[in-house]
Amino acid sequence: KKKKKLNKHICVHMYKKKKRTVVGIRCSDGVVLGVEKLIHSKMLVRDTYHRIFTVSKNAGIAIAGVLPDGRQLVNRAREEASSYKRNFGVEIPGKILAQRVALFVHAYTEYWHLRPFGVSCLVATCDENDGPQLYLIDPSGDCRKFQAIAVGKGQQPSRVQLEKIDFQKITCKEAVNKVAQIIYSIHDDVKDKPFDLELSWVLNDSKKLILLCSFVYLVGALKTKKIHVWTNDRHVFVPQDVLSQAKDAGVKATQDEESDDEDA
């Protein structure tokens, strides 16, 4: 049993070293999640590979670590959310969801015939009573609430940048660019494989989200109009135009850092 326990600790330590960077920011109007998603093959169909998942109408989970283990936690979270909705008729509060998933994770550290989950996950939720919330669940089953947090290989430099943010003022639209800048800045193009940026959010005031959409009228003219998108505190991936702007901001920030280093 002692040998098995030692192997568990070694296993978790190795998982921690391998997991990619995940960043979450709780904003004035919601929560933003961002993931450094490595592309292991040029032939990969990217829509089939995700590290951010929706587990209920108003909650999402971002996975850092072993992806199959992460999917197991996602399925557990979906079961908890579905059971709560079926029993009480409302969406599960973020605090309860995070605590129940954390208890499930902790149970796998208690028995010799089970190994701990090789993941840390960020849980982003938004509900009427508590508003936007961000939780971290680590492989031990510890669950904590944060204004902003980063986990994974680049967590230390990421947390230094997160500490400079004014969380009372920053909006989700601003945080999306900030998350992109952090992830692009900590990625090592020489040592690491190419990556794709994955971003999602839960908006507390969804009326602020305005998308530009093109409509083709019967006369055949192509026009552009502004429309309001109402998501009702739903967890969704950020729109493609917002994602493109965030990627551009991340690339620009990296180029600025490189030019500053050359000048120095």
UniProtKB/TrEMBL annotation:
PROSITE patterns: PROTEASOME_ALPHA_2. GO terms for cellular component: proteasome core complex, alpha-subunit complex. Pfam families: Proteasome. Keywords: Proteasome. The keyword Transport does not apply. The keyword Signal does not apply. InterPro entries: Ntn_hydrolases_N, Proteasome_alpha, Proteasome_alpha-type, Proteasome_sua/b. It comes from the Eukaryota. GO terms for biological process: proteolysis involved in protein catabolic process. This is Uncharacterized protein.
